[in-house]
Fold this sequence. Notes:
By secondary structure, this protein is an alpha+beta fold. The chain is 32% helix and 28% strand. It has 18 helices and 32 strands. The strands form 11 sheets. It has a 6-stranded antiparallel β-sheet. α11 packs antiparallel against α12 (261-274). The longest helix has 37 residues, at 341-377. The radius of gyration is 38 Å and the shape is elongated. The protein starts with a strand and ends with a strand. 31% of the residues are buried.
Amino acid sequence: MIGKLFNNRYEIKEKLGSGGTSIVYRGLDTLLGRMVTIKILREEYASNEDFVRRFRREAQAVASLSHGNIVSVYDVGYEENMHYIVMEFVEGESLKEYIKRKGALEINEACNIITQILQGIQYAHEHGIIHRDIKPHNILLGVDGRAKVTDFGIAVGMSDVTMTYNTSSKILGSVHYISPEQVQGQAVTEKSDIYSVGVVFYEMLTGQMPFSGDAPISIAMQHVQGEVVQPHQLNPNIPMGLSYVVMRAMRKNPESRYESAQEMAEAIYAVWNGGSQAVRPFNAVSPSGEKRNAGYVGEKRAASHKENYEKDYDDYQEEDEDEEMYFRRRREEGGKNGVSAAGKRRTLNGGRIALLVLMALLALTIVWAAVRLIGYFGGDASTTMPYVVGYDQQDAVALLQEHGLQVNIIEKNSSDIPQGQVMSQSIDEGQAVSEGQVVDLTVSAGEPLVDVPSVLGYVERIAITTLNNLGLFTEISEEYSDEYAKGEVMAQDPQGGEQIAPGGTVALVISMGAEATPVAMPDLRGKTVNEARQLITDAGLFVQEVKYGESYDYDEGYVYDQSIAANSQTLTGEYVTLYVSQGPGPILKTGMFTYMLPIDGKSHEIVITSQDVYETTEVYNQTVHFGETIYIEIEYYNRSVVTVYMDGEPVYTENMQ
């Protein structure tokens, strides 16, 4: 596939990856001289006429979207039984890869990314396009920090195939991010995208999925029936307001979710900008690509969101009922003195919480005092606790054993403290201790090990970038391979799933393709480009370039020359340049041919053929007496090789120009 030219314009340069429905390549738009992404549908989808029809219609609709947070679609086409989409090339990585690498994102970063995603989704919704497959895999993070939503065309085109049950009760598609209505086969709306964005936001904030399971069907059904652990319960650093935004976006009833992606973005901004922690303002990206000040959501609307969410959040936590019904009941219960039942409940909740806090503090005080009393009056205190923080483990253990103490070692990773050095001790320096008492020492295990990802099948550049982003170095070697294409990683050490120290080296073996063997160069002249490509592929060769030029020997669109001479010996894996005619092509000519038979006293069967640039034609076939002269007029294109056969044997050849 490398070197293939689509539409005489888009040249495939390297394979970037593959998925369930398509294979993705980096390509070059030879007309505009810019890099592009070329996505080619797999063969099993190309044979589904209904799918192909919807795919082309929807992909062309998405091509009309122009927004700074949406990957642009430049072209859609079909060639050699392959449907392809040409898109903007984004230098960077997917949000899924980023989360895998970093875990839970910082609040500022997560809010920045999710609001960019929401802007792209809002723009698409305003233009009548529902994505239906929002997931981190479909969010690209550019090196400039901009988030771009991709895979609109395929996701919409295959929605009825991937987003519902099939006859075998198997759920296909992105079950971790699918909305409840998609699981149940109900109508999909803009709010289905909002649900999926909520799941993505959940994953960014917590570093984990809201639902998990062994089978796709069990995960999918949890979206319909399962309860979600709220984000701030998993990560205490998450403001409760943001946790509320996620939970509302993931409401199982679509009517209870945000009305639009824009409204969800405003809610995030209200909490993000109004929180107690210092945060940078949200620089929104407009459809033109320009950044706008955070105030774009409207200060009054943002303030309104913040006030409402902070006021209602405590009650929302306690009440297990539909949000809209609850707020409606609250309004109906409002008292004459302006204090609602919900307000009274909140007062009682506050008192209960304060009482619980006091009781917890009292219990901790009692435990602390008991420990101190045991330390001082335990009966057999024979020494005082020395200070060993900063000691090497061996020296610290020796010192404590000299004091008659037992030691329990607890290892903990640290990027700041050298491996083997004591980080903390469970008993304070100077405290009275008894002989035989156990002391816990927390000892540095050094920097945490890095999980090595599997990069098998990656092209060399992407593999190196992936490992470098984890702080790992690479060592490159090359070998021949019949399994892996040239330039792909065919082996690695350590292998994927193993751990290695930060800054370690991963040895990569890069495929040189199949080992070269001698092969005869096929004659490509007079063949169409597609026919020539097939002959080249069958011979184990590759097309390097297709050039166009003037030819009087071959019609427009036909190969008139090749960089490796026809029938010459070459090696598999070599690259061939094709020269294709742009016309004007062969010119029709007329010429007179004469031939005199020998005077041998015999009659002979005479056959005369004319071979021009197109074909060989029989122009004469008669029995002729000895000594006679044959005169015939021959029509031919460009030139002709005229051959005379006497009684079946060639006896004369003449070139006519």
